[in-house]
Amino acid sequence: MSIETPTNTSSSMGQAALYSQGSLNFINRGIFDNDGNKAKLAFDLNGDWIYRQGGPGSAEISFGNLEFTNRFTTGAANSHADGLGTIAIDNTGIKVASSFTESILQFDLMYNDTATDFDTSGRTAMMHAGWIGGLTDTLVRVSPGGVGVNALSPKTQGLSVLTQWGFDSDFILNLGHAGGNDTQLQFRDWRHLGNGSGPMLKMEMALDVLQDGAGSGGLCFGVTGQTCVADDFYDTRADAGESAFAILLRDSYLRAYSESIAVDSLANVDSASAYDWSVILTMGLLESDILVYPGGPYAEPDGFRLDAALMVQSPGYWDAANSNVAAMRDAAAAGWETNSHFLFADMGADVAIGLMNVDVLWNADDLYLVLGQDDPAFPDLPSGMMLSTDVLSRYQVRGLLGAGSPSDLGSDVAKIALWDLNLSANQFRFVLYPTTASGSEALGFDAFMNLDGSSYLTLAEVSSPQSAFQLYNVTGSLGWGNGSITVRSENETADNLPSLTIANKLYIGENADFGQTGANHLDPLIGSLGFGDQNYGQIAMPGGVWHSEIVAKIPQ
């Protein structure tokens, strides 16, 4: 996998292998007939997809035990009997559509740091993910034309892909362990947010190659319309003299959530009783500009780095919630059914708590994916799957902190504060690796970030946004060590309650020591403290080590 330019002819994005077997059954009237539902389709694939950076002997990650199937059916209510759909070519490109589809995509994320040559043995399973069940009103379009260069049109060469559908009554999402006890979180009973209609999930993607300073036209963060002020505008462009593979999302969303959760081993979770609890994670508007370049860090020829701006938004909410006009503040959440939310919910009691009408920003520059290599700048970090940059990695999350009814997040809400957290780092490392915790297989993580002075946290009064507690101009180092994420079913805990545990050591300031020396940061944590327009001085934490263990349990 490579992209070459006159100044970069030897770098590669890495090597990949697919071991697979499967079948395809396709029947249509004509080859590509667009006149109604005349096509039958059944496709299945089983195997392993493996990726490495470098030649034989390099560390490998893989989607092991990969299963991918799609079939036109008559829907979950009819036990997914064989059905009909449309496979056609029209004036926009290739079209695949069906009223009902049964779809499975599941795999184990696996890691092997002692691989020889695309090995399917000797791997360590890290996590399992599964997308299983029925989809409704499925539409997939593949059209010619990628992105416009500095304009919305005309399109450049490339591909545009539209996918959209709803979730049928049997659709589930599995997330959990891939080894040991195989404990899974299974999210069931998906529904629209509020009284929404139409597709629950929609993705509009453009795939293209941008060259020598070209961009997509940029993205505006958290606002309505196509124009914004400079602070809200993110213009991601290909580096001068370089070519980048561009992955762009526009007008995409997830406006649905699960109403129940089951927890058990992978073998038993389908028959396990569900709890009337949920994690509500909706994306009102999802957009991104991601540019991928070949070549690794430390002058390595294989690997890739990326520049990215990715946004999950509730357009217009933040400006309205911070308005000086009371009527605008009161109406800020009017579009809650098409906004973004992150909530923990007791569905039986119709109560949820968390962040509502959220905007989330991830902005990165020169971010590398590194597999199985020790980092010479941070020699005490474990190897694994590492994200690394010495330029920029920024995360911003803002919205309304509060509680309310999932069925009406527009009016039936207890408003606590307007939350705005911005973490901007000029040096960042994050590594995932297989580990164990309390005798169970777990997903391990370590991390480091050096805050660059533009980081802050504000908590503002909802009725008077100018009355805000502020911790701002934050600089210094933070580290996370010996981290683990573990899921346990009721059969594995002393109190018979399913649990999710996130444990780690938090290193502050000069204790965020992963062996870095020289110009690499190991700085005390310092920030300014204020309220409203008043500055109360600075606070500092030269160092410290905290043990953190967050345990979320589902009560009976």
Please outline what is shown here.
The protein has 2 helices and 27 strands. It has 556 residues and is mainly β.
How are the elements arranged and paired?
Layout: E1 15-27, E2 40-52, E3 60-72, E4 86-90, E5 93-112, E6 124-144, E7 159-167, E8 172-176, E9 183-192, E10 201-211, E11 219-220, E12 233-234, E13 243-254, E14 256-265, E15 277-294, E16 304-313, H1 317-321, H2 326-330, E17 341-346, E18 351-371, E19 385-389, E20 392-405, E21 408-437, E22 440-461, E23 464-488, E24 499-509, E25 525-531, E26 534-541, E27 543-553
Antiparallel strand pairs: 1-2, 2-3, 3-5, 4-5, 5-6, 6-7, 6-8, 7-10, 8-9, 9-14, 10-13, 11-12, 13-15, 15-16, 15-17, 16-18, 17-18, 18-19, 18-20, 19-21, 20-21, 21-22, 22-23, 23-24, 23-25, 24-27, 25-26
Brief descriptors of the model:
27 strands, mainly beta, two-stranded antiparallel sheet, 556 residues, 2% helix, 25-stranded antiparallel β-sheet, 2 helices
User: What are the secondary-structure elements, in order, as H or E?
Assistant: EEEEEEEEEEEEEEEEHHEEEEEEEEEEE
Q: What is the number of domains?
A: 1
Oligomeric composition of the shown chains? single chain
Structural class: mainly beta
Please state roughly what percent of the residues sit in beta strands, choosing from under 5%, 5-15%, 15-25%, 25-35%, 35-45% or over 45%. Answer: over 45%
